[in-house]
Structure formats: C-alpha cells, structure tokens
Amino acid sequence: MPRVRDVLDVPYWNVRTGPRNSISDVPGVLVGHVTLIEGSGPLIPGRGPVRTGVTVVLPHSGNIYREKVIAAAHVINGFTKAVGLVQVEELGLIETPIALTNTLNVGIVADGLIEYSIRQSPEIGISAPTVNPVVLECNDGYLNDIQGRHVKQYHVLKAVEEASESFSEGSVGAGTGTIAFGFKGGIGTSSREVTTSFGTYVVGVLVQTNFGRTEDLVIAGVPVGKYLTGVQRSGSSGSVNVVVATNAPLTPRQLKRLARRAQSGLARVGGYVYHGSGEVVLAFTTAFRVRTGVRELVNLEVLPDEELNSLFKGVVEATEEAVLNSMFNSTTMDGRDGRVVPGIPVEKIAELVRGFWGYHSSKNSLKSSKP
Hints:
Layout: H1 4-7, E1 30-38, E2 50-58, E3 67-78, H2 85-91, E4 93-94, E5 98-102, H3 106-120, E6 134-138, H4 153-161, E7 179-180, E8 183-184, E9 187-196, E10 199-211, E11 238-246, H5 252-268, E12 278-285, E13 290-291, H6 309-328, E14 333-334, E15 340-341, H7 346-357, H8 366-369
Parallel strand pairs: 5-6, 11-12
Antiparallel strand pairs: 1-2, 2-5, 3-4, 3-12, 3-13, 7-8, 9-10, 10-11, 14-15
C-alpha cells in the first residue's frame, strides 16, 4: 500500500524524516501487531463478525520492568478508558510495553501485559513492587463485535514476541476496525530527524486513528474534505491515540511538553477534539533507563528547554504524517451488519492536492527530496 509521500508530489513538510520514516527509527523501539478478521453478516454479540486486534510498542527489547524508561502522558480529551496513565503521571516512568486495542478489550490486554511482565520478572508483587500496564484504546464497534472481546492474553504475548523494527500500517492490529474522517483509518507512523546544538536526535510517532469528520479533513494544507463524500457515522466523534518516542535526553516535564505538541499535528489534519472523543498522547525517551530496586543516584544530562523547538516541530509534522499514513495504507473494509467503510480515494486526493499546489511532476517530490 502507498504511504502519503508515495502519492503526493508537493513540497509540504520541512523536517527530514528518519530512514524508515517510522517510530522504529528511534533506536531500540519495536512494534508488533496481532490482527483479527473473522466472519461477516449480522452482529451476533460475543461471536462476531470480528474486526479488531492489538498493537504493542516496546521502548526497548530488554526487560522493561527492570529497566524502565522516562515518560509522560498528556490527555487532550478524556473520553477514554485507557489504563496506567495515573502512575505515569506520578512517577514519569513506563515499565511495560505500551499496548493499543479496542475499548472493551482494555482489561484483557492489560492482563496480557501483566502476564508478560511476570514471566520476565517473577519477583513482581512478591519481593518487588507490582507492575503498571499501559493500555490505550479506541472504540471499533462500528465494524467489530466489540462485546466479544476477541483479543485474548495470548494475542498480546504474540504481538510482543513478534515485535520488530519493520511493521505494517493501516488496517492492522489495534487499527483493524477503526475509522478516520469517514474513511478507513488504522495504524500509522512517521519520524523526523531533528538537529540541536548537542547533536541530532529522532522523534518518532505511531498513531491509532479513529476520529474526524470527512468535511474537516486537511491534507498537505489543502481542505480536501470539503470536496469529498465519505461515510460518516452520525453523532460519533471517535478517538485517536498518539505514541511519541525519542532518543533525545529529556525529563518527564520536557516529554509532557513534547506530548502536548502532538495536538498541533492532529489539528493540521482537521482534528477538532469534538465532544465524545478521546485523545491521549504518551511520550517516552530511550536516552535513559531507570533500574528497578537499585538505590543509586540517577545522573541525567538533559537538553535545555531552549533546544526543544526542533523537537516540537518534529513531533507536529510526524503526528500529522502518521495520521495520513494510517489512512493511505488502509483499504475499504466491511464489518458487522453489512456495514462498509471505504478506503480514502487516493487518486482524487492527489488530484486535489496537486491542483492546489500547482505541481504536477515529481521534480519537487516529497518522496525524492525527503525533507
């Protein structure tokens, strides 16, 4: 499937991407999916049809409970059933993989993360503190038998086991049944390489998109939604989750500042944070590891706040592009009760955007210049 840079040939973004243009450009970060697609026809609660899954983001491939990473969370709109954010807010640490799934599957997925952590660290809850699983969610019930809670513990363990630097986008994992701007949404990712006085760092973003109204959609600065006819669910605003990773040395306070900027990226594609939506941003850095149970001074050399502007711009652009990649990598999908959500009309989008920008050749291509 094409990514947005494979389709548009306009010089829109300014900051250079990482080599994969992915959250996995941040060294050590891995992503895994389990996708569940089964059945068709009328909804039978508890049985199907199934259009759902789970996605996990690993800050590193080691024992995350024993070697935690510094993190922060920012809730843009709190219509969400996410778990684990309270302790992240208090301690500024993540100690499990980050999981994304559907709303009613949060408890089972959290149980999967707990099981994974106990298998790695049998001391949890006995001679060591308990563990804080982090699970973010979107409601995929328009296409999926959400009451069935079809994502099981073993699916979570499989997603973690199969996590890698290379992973699919679109209607996969936690994005299998989600919808964005009236078209098929899903999982998307992007990254930026940013330069500071102290070196070059990577900011990577992964999104689970389930938000937006067709008429609001903006792509490469063009209000394309005004000229498109999509499938929009009446009265539903949807949600979006954003995971931000970086190798820049930052404190939890600075990571929260970074997380807040993701909202600007969502706004650039037409996200208005309507009532009923749930938007959560979770940011972490791989620059440090905090060891469990080791009483030692934690010596952190961090960037001064004055150096954060390039990271702020990077996360805004990467969030915007990740949302578009989630849509461009998705195709039309049917679901329960004969419902169908169309894929975004890629050729029509390209025509609208190129016409607005006045570019019709690949000479000034985003893909070739790759800022």
